[in-house]
Design a protein that fits this description.
alpha/beta; Rossmann fold
């Protein structure tokens, strides 16, 4: 069990110079926790009138939760199967929150994201009851939402309370457990990108928070052969690792500790499929496939003992043609300047050996691939229903949909 008081103490007066806040009041991860949800909420000061948000699948998985809330007056918002978190749904939840004291989100991913953003805007307490260890956003401060088919990460809030029943986590579909593993190994790419950006641009970086993410990711890697097992102890360990990266995002108020260019690649694929009226595969599955692709590219970059850098040259007509209806959003993100305009090419050359050391500090493509095989993850674009054309398009054009420097974006400035 995570010791929140100890974490607050450890991250107070951090050497990075920023205050790290942990607004989560309580985390309960135990066998049979579904029967104690009402008791836990009362202990943490939740009012008697709650909005319960779920879909048919997550509510079925959380069998017993309604009975545990017998002392509360419950309003319900039950989706058939919510797979896409949108700004439109956030507004619907926000309106429902006007008549209640707080909200409990039963599920993972998209359900949590819309509740995280809506409860932040409505200034209402939030509890997340997790039904699967399928992604790392349970404790996150941010919410990735789709607005007009364009994926944007919004500032939201961390939940006041997080509850997980290890029996339910262990019984979750293997596909969701594997998706959680895929989401977690992406942190290796994210840590490379964050460190490289800090080195080249002076972007804020906290080594202590980065180490927290690394600890959680290494822990997940060590559990690779147990991720899909119907085993409560393993399920609890995986869930705790997922929580740590979310807490890291809360400490820094950014998604840097948990995502890099692998997440943006996944978002590109998702947006392009939405334009075709298609819903993408699970977030963690896509992130895992993108992670393998990026780690392979970074491994090739590492082999370059010396590079010659230059100002980035962008064929905007070509780039925008690949975004189609979304091009206006891309233009906004890259106007009046781009993320690379202020970078001196010589600083890349001078720091190249340090960049290589950063790349070498995480497991290799081969090591991550082997671990993902053990955890039965999606490995190829076919596994996530993405065409080869879209797969390659995403790897090439995704950097322009987010104003965030990555090593992959930097590589467009040399050789």
């Amino acid at each position: 069990m995570l010791d929140l008081a100890k974490m607050r103490e450890e991250f107070s007066n951090c050497e990075c110079g920023r205050e790290h806040q942990l607004t989560i009041k309580d985390i309960v991860v135990e066998s049979g926790a579904v029967k104690r949800v009402g008791e836990i909420l009362l202990k943490n000061g939740f009012g008697k009138k709650l909005l319960l948000v779920a879909d048919n699948n997550t509510l079925r998985a959380a069998d017993g939760i309604i009975e545990s809330l017998k002392d509360f007056e419950i309003e319900y918002k039950i989706y058939e199967n919510l797979r896409e978190a949108t700004v439109k749904e956030v507004q619907k939840i926000k309106e429902l929150l006007e008549e209640v004291d707080g909200v409990i989100s039963v599920g993972t991913g998209s359900l949590n994201d819309i509740c995280r953003k809506a409860s932040a805007e409505a200034n209402k307490p939030l509890c997340i009851f997790a039904t699967a260890a399928s992604m790392d956003g349970f404790a996150s401060y941010n919410a990735p939402l789709t607005d007009g088919n364009f994926k944007v990460t919004y500032e939201a809030k961390s939940p006041e309370v997080i509850i997980a029943d290890t029996k339910i986590l262990a019984a979750a579909p293997k596909e969701l457990k594997s998706a959680g593993f895929g989401d977690m190994v992406g942190k290796y790419v994210g840590l490379i990108d964050w460190q490289v950006s800090a080195l080249i641009t002076g972007e804020y970086y906290c080594e202590k928070v980065a180490n927290l993410t690394r600890l959680a990711t290494d822990k997940i890697m060590a559990l690779a052969d147990r991720v899909t097992a119907d085993d409560e102890e393993s399920a609890a360990a995986v869930f705790e690792a997922l929580l740590l990266t979310g807490i890291g995002m809360g400490f820094t108020k950014t998604s840097r500790p948990a995502s890099g260019t692998e997440h943006i690649t996944s978002h590109f694929w998702e947006c392009k499929k939405l334009l075709e009226g298609k819903i993408s595969d699970f977030h963690g599955k896509k992130v895992g496939v993108a992670t393998l692709a990026i780690l392979k590219i970074y491994g090739e970059l590492y082999k370059k003992e010396k590079i010659t850098a230059h100002k980035e040259v962008i064929d905007w007509e070509d780039v925008l043609s690949h975004y189609g209806e979304l091009k206006d959003e891309v233009i906004k993100l890259n106007t009046p300047d781009t993320i690379t305009d202020g970078i001196n090419p010589k600083s890349i050359e001078d720091n190249w050996q340090k960049i290589r050391e950063i790349v070498a500090s995480v497991p290799t493509y081969e090591q991550v691939l082997e671990a993902m095989k053990k955890s039965e993850c999606a490995l190829t674009y076919e596994d996530i229903a993405v065409s080869r054309e879209l797969y390659e398009e995403g790897l090439k054009y995704h950097p322009y949909m987010r104003r965030r420097l990555s090593l992959l974006r930097l590589s467009k400035m040399f050789n």
